[in-house]
Amino acid sequence: AQTVTQSQPEMSVQEAETVTLSCTYDTSESDYYLFWYKQPPSRQMILVIRQEAYKQQNATENRFSVNFQKAAKSFSLKISDSQLGDAAMYFCAYRTDKLIFGTGTRLQVFP
Amino acid sequence: GAGVSQTPSNKVTEKGKYVELRCDPISGHTALYWYRQSLGQGPEFLIYFQGTGAADDSGLPNDRFFAVRPEGSVSTLKIQRTERGDSAVYLCASSLGASSYNEQFFGPGTRLTVL
To answer: Is residue A96 over pLDDT 80?
Structure first.
C-alpha cells in the first residue's frame, strides 16, 4: 500500500526567509505524481506544485520548488522569500488515480 | 467559471440521524472525488466517480456510507445512522478526467458534527 509521511507537524519561518518542508512516501509503482497542497483556515485545498515521477528535473513554481529524490522516495518543498500569506497547513500527496495525503505540516510565518 | 461548491458548509446532526452532503463539480469535469478529513489529519479517500459510475469505492468505511452521481454532474454523499466518529470535514474534488496528470480542484468542504 502507498503511504505518505510528513515528519514535521509544525514549522516556523521569518518573513523573507526560506523554509523546507519534508515528505517521504512509499510505493512500488514506477509512474506516479507527487503534489504539495496548501490548506488555509478556509479549508480550501490549493495546489502549490506538482512533480511527475518520470521527470528528473525538479519542479519550480515562482517561490516554490521541490527536491525530488526518487530513489530515496523523498519529496521536499522549499518556500523562498516567505510571505505572511504562506501561513497554512501544507499537505504532501501521492497519486496514481486517487490522492493519498500525508498528515500535514502547519507553517507559521513571523513578521 | 465557478469552482467546486459544496453544501451545506456546516451540518450539525444527532447520533443516529441520516445526512446528505452535496457536491457541485466544475462544469465539464467527468471525475469526482470524495475525501474525509478528520481533525489534525490529512484527507482520506472515500470514493471516486468517472461519469455516473463509481470507479473506486474502496475508501468507504462501511455500508452506512453511500454516494451517487446519477447524471454525471452533481454528487451526493449519504450517511445513514450517523455516529460521533463520522464527525469530520468532507471534501469534494473534481477533475477533467481520472488520469493522474489531471489536477483535482477541491471545494471548501462540509464540516459535519455528530452530537
So the answer is: no
